[in-house]
Amino acid sequence: MTDFLHEATSPFLLFDELPSSYTEHPFSPFALTDAFIQEAGEKKQPIMHFWTTSKQIILGMLDTKLPYLNDALRVFSSYDYAYMVRNSGGLAVVSDEGVLNFSIFFPEGEARLSINEGYERMHHILQEAFASYGKTIHAYEISDSYCPGDFDLSIDGKKIAGIAQRRLRGGIAIMIYLSVHGDQKKRADMIRAFYDVGLKQKETKWDFPPVRPEVMTTLEEALGVPLTIEQTKENIQHVFTKAGIELIQGDLTPTIQKAYEEGFEKMVKRNNKMLPSSPHSANG
């Protein structure tokens, strides 16, 4: 992989602290993701976006195929977690105040970024961000974690993060959820219970992971130091500034706002269609 950070010639627009109207609804980050992909592609502008949520389960579309989905969703309500279906691939992940979601957006030119190189870029950023702690962050599938994938990030064999991608209209998003601190065992127990109840040992043509909580951990536990979400964001941003990339606070331009509204409406329709009860209520 080429060192894209040192080859970057444009500043990145940074979106972190946004107005509450763009952060309070569970669908907002996903509508923003589509808007930022479009903005990156049309304006040839790389973008960076950090976000966190309250207690929320982010389902993949495949999760809605569970034969006993209604029963399975009650697991989340019992833990007081809301739930919704995202607009990108993969399976269920947990988001709460101890999980940092981070996305980088690139315009795609004639030389299309390969899927693997997209993942490698995110892996490189995370490895650089925490290199001073003396641990190596590996990228390979942790098959018995929740939402397993080829580029799961792990330390000492325990998963700390998962990466996904989304491409639209000449832009690409590389997205990661990073378990920074909190009760990772509880998060994994919850997803394991979701699949146990949702399947009830019934065979399906879809594969769902046999989630084992012991194969997952938090960044804080893996590094052996206390870590906050803010510290984690600072470490990631430092990777860019150290490489000479300027980070500029982004503005929600009219084009972003319009694309956000369109993306939000699509999220509403998707969740109304795929979920049997209110997608943004833990008691739905």
TrEMBL record:
Keyword Transferase: yes
Family to which the UniProt record says this protein belongs: Belongs to the octanoyltransferase LipL family.
Catalysed conversion reaction: N(6)-octanoyl-L-lysyl-[glycine-cleavage complex H protein] + L-lysyl-[lipoyl-carrier protein] = N(6)-octanoyl-L-lysyl-[lipoyl-carrier protein] + L-lysyl-[glycine-cleavage complex H protein]
Signal peptide start-end: none
Swiss-Prot/TrEMBL keywords: Acyltransferase, Ligase, Transferase
Name of the protein in question: Octanoyl-[GcvH]:protein N-octanoyltransferase
Site (Lowers pKa of active site Cys) residue list: 159
Purpose of the protein: Catalyzes the amidotransfer (transamidation) of the octanoyl moiety from octanoyl-GcvH to the lipoyl domain of the E2 subunit of lipoate-dependent enzymes.
EC number, UniProt record: 2.3.1.204
Pathway entry: Protein modification; protein lipoylation via endogenous pathway; protein N(6)-(lipoyl)lysine from octanoyl-[acyl-carrier-protein]
